[in-house]
Amino acid sequence: MADLDVDVVVIGAGPVGENAADRAHQQGLSAAIVEAGLVGGECSYYACIPSKALLRPVDLKAAVDRMPGVASGPVDVAKVLERRDQFAAEDDSSQADWLSGAGITLLRGRGRLTGERAVEVTHDDGTTTSVTARAVVVATGSVPTYPPIDGIADVGAWTNRDATQVKDVPSSLLILGGGVVGVEMATAYQRLGAQVTLVQHGERLVPGVEPEAARRLQASLEADGVDVRLGTSMTAVRRSDGAVTATLDDGSEVTGDELLVAAGRKPATSDIGLETVGLEPGKPLPADDTTTVLADWLYAVGDASTGAKLTHMGKYQARICGDVIVARARGQQLGGRYSHHATTAEHTAVPQVIFTDPQIAAVGYTEDAARAEGLPVRSVSYEIGNVAGGSLQADGYDGFATIVVDTEREVIVGATFVGQDVADMVHAATIAVVGEVPLSRLWHAVPSFPTMSEVWLRLLETYGL
């Protein structure tokens, strides 16, 4: 049994855990990080990065197809997968080297709490390291969930890991779930040559977005050839002759070479020793706005905690977490930037991009969500194709922008952009929402011509300014 004493130990070396450790270490604290899998975590190898590497080429081809005078041809699937591997090959040596260069100790193995401020790491060779620390940060991420479907455990169903690390594209694919993973993979695989059938229990896709955004996304998927089944569930699945057949609750059947289960995730907190400190395993850790879970020593960030399950929001929490740990080590009072509640970002201004075609980029409330919170709101929309930048971006540009305005304070509390190449437009909206910029002031933020950002001017005009 080896022993290690550090200021901060982080369980989980994904981007969120890395940020927490690095933030604390840069300010003078010693830090160690524990990882049982690949350094870089889910996002680097199985989620954000490889999925976008698969989506970018097919998205670009669609954009070229909408531009007369530009040559277009079939997607070279082998080269798409080869480029994906350049970003997300299952080799973490460069990320491990980064930790070493940053002065952060990497402990490869499974970390478990054994009591207050104590973590035991079990390495692959069976040896253990006992770590004591002033602060312990849980950044273990999340794992896929499987719905209770007869036969689901026996068919070799894919998770996002299989879908993003695939070596060959199947001729057909069943997808269970119409959330972000489901619709992004439906977009990628249909355009890479698979016949995709998507089964969604709810009455529309990606239910957290504006209804019109979901409608246009569904129309686009169906125009591509995706068989979208809404308001239905799988009751049983079986594999025979190499294919998976799913029975739906209306008695019909659908078949595909593979089945991707994209029906949700749960915190990866089942086997990290939470019971030794009085917490329930398998649940999200109840961190407060300073990311603190217990007293002044246990913290949680990212998917293991409460709040938005997005890499950028987890990294935001991690920066706050590192600063809080340092402030407490120095005996400083917490406040201001030491709390994500102070900026409202975690509560009402979470930005997100869904990299389908059309892209959906949104921040803050939808109109329905704002009304459910009791806010006095009015929303206005404008077709992006009706501004010069949109019409120049693509022939027949199909997309729109919506802002949700608090009519008492005259500030934007939500915004949605739908269409080709809108992903980067959401940050301006995020600044407006987080900064609570009055519309009277926003009116003087003049958009460049001819860009799609001119839609901001049209939205404010439509509102009545």
From TrEMBL:
Could you tell me which residue ranges the Pyridine nucleotide-disulphide oxidoreductase dimerisation domain spans? 350-456
Q: Name one GO molecular function term.
A: oxidoreductase activity
Q: Which InterPro entries match?
A: Class-I_Pyr_Nuc-Dis_Oxidored, FAD/NAD-bd_sf, FAD/NAD-binding_dom, FAD/NAD-linked_Rdtase_dimer_sf, Pyr_nuc-diS_OxRdtase, Pyr_nucl-diS_OxRdtase_dimer
Task: Give the EC number(s) under which this enzyme is classified.
Answer: 1.-.-.-
Pfam families according to UniProt? Pyr_redox_2, Pyr_redox_dim
Q: Which residues form the FAD/NAD(P)-binding domain?
A: 7-317
Cofactor(s), names only, from the UniProt record = FAD
Q: What does the UniProt keyword field contain?
A: FAD, Flavoprotein, NAD, Oxidoreductase
Q: Which domain of life is it from?
A: Bacteria
Enzyme class, broadest EC rank:
oxidoreductase
Per the similarity annotation, which family is this? Belongs to the class-I pyridine nucleotide-disulfide oxidoreductase family.
> What is the name listed in the Swiss-Prot or TrEMBL entry for this protein?
NAD(P)/FAD-dependent oxidoreductase
* UniProt organism field: Actinomycetospora termitidis
